[in-house]
Design a protein that fits this description.
70 residues, 67% helix, mainly alpha
């Protein structure tokens, strides 16, 4: 229920900005990276058991490939 509520807020925010178009057409990788880290940290705070081997692999990839952004 907590995870569902968490993602319902995110879905609502995404749906409310459907018509938004970024002028330059490029992704903001720093913003995406921050969103992923925030989501990961929030979910692990709710339940550490949610971390599956696949999620752990994605976390390591985010750490490795995001290091050039710092």
């Amino acid at each position: 229920m907590a995870i569902s509520n968490y993602f319902n807020v995110i879905k609502h925010n995404i749906d409310s900005g459907k018509n938004y178009q970024k002028v330059d057409g490029r992704l903001d990788y720093l913003l995406i990276r921050r969103f992923l880290w925030t989501t990961y940290n929030n979910l692990t705070d709710i339940d550490i058991q949610i971390i599956s081997p696949k999620i752990n692999t994605l976390k390591k990839d985010l750490e490795k490939n995001g290091s050039y952004l710092r």
